[in-house]
Amino acid sequence: MLAMRDVKKAYGSRQALSGFDLDVHEGETVVIMGPSGCGKSTALRCIIRLTEPDSGSILWRGRSVLGMSSDELRSYRRRTGFVFQRSNLVSRLSVLENAMLPGVMAGVSIDEAKRLAYGALEKVGIERLAAAYPPNLSGGEMQRAAIARAIAQEPELLLWDEPTASLDPILVVDVLKLIESLARSLGSTMIIVTHEVQFALRVADKVVLVSDGAVVDEGKPEDVLLTPGSDLARQYSESLSYFAGHREEKEVGL
Fold it and tell me: What is the CATH T-level fold of the domain 2-79+155-251, as seen in this structure?
C-alpha cells in the first residue's frame, strides 16, 4: 500500500532522514518509535509532502507520490488524515466547522460535509461540543476535535504525529484509549509516531524503530520490544523492565 525507499531529507547541515525505508500494508497499524529528533515526524510529513524529501521514492498503491501533479496530490491528501502534535484547529470556526473543513475543501456538499463531521464528533465522544469554539476547549477536547477532523472523510490512511505530546499526563491515557478504539473500529491503515511503549505493544501490528534518520529495527511489537535485537530496542525493553519491576516492588512493599 505504502513504500518508502532510501528517503533522505536535510535541514541545512542536519540530516533528518538518512536513507529511510518503510513498508505499510493495507489495514496495518504501524507504530514508529525512536529518540526525539531522529526523523520520525519528518518521515511522516514526507508521506503526504508537507515536507519535500531531497531524494528517494515514496509509492502509494504503486504510484509515485513525489511524481504526482497538483491535482493528483490533492486527491491523495483527501484520502489521508493527519493528526498533529498540537490540534491546529481554526479558532474562529466551531468544532463542527473544523471537522467539516476537509470535506468542504474536497468539494463535498455542505450538508454531506456536516453529516460526516458530526458522525466523526460522535466517534470521538464530543458531539455535545459541536457548537463550541477551540479557545473554550480543554487540551484533551481540542485533540479530540482534531482527531474528528482527521477521520471525518473516512480516510484510507491515517497519520498520527505524536498525538499526545502536547497533553498533560492525566489526559494522555484518555487519548491513547481513543486511538486504540479507532484503530480497531475504523478499518483505516494507520501510522502512529509515539513514545508510548505500552501503547505500541497493545495496538501495533508492526513496530518500527528509528535512529539517526534510518530504520534500525522492525517487526511484531513483542519481537522488537520484548526480545530486542538492536541497541535501541534493548533500551526500550529495559524501560519496560524497569517500570514492571517498580510495580512489583510496590506490590510486595519494598
Answer: Rossmann fold (3.40.50)
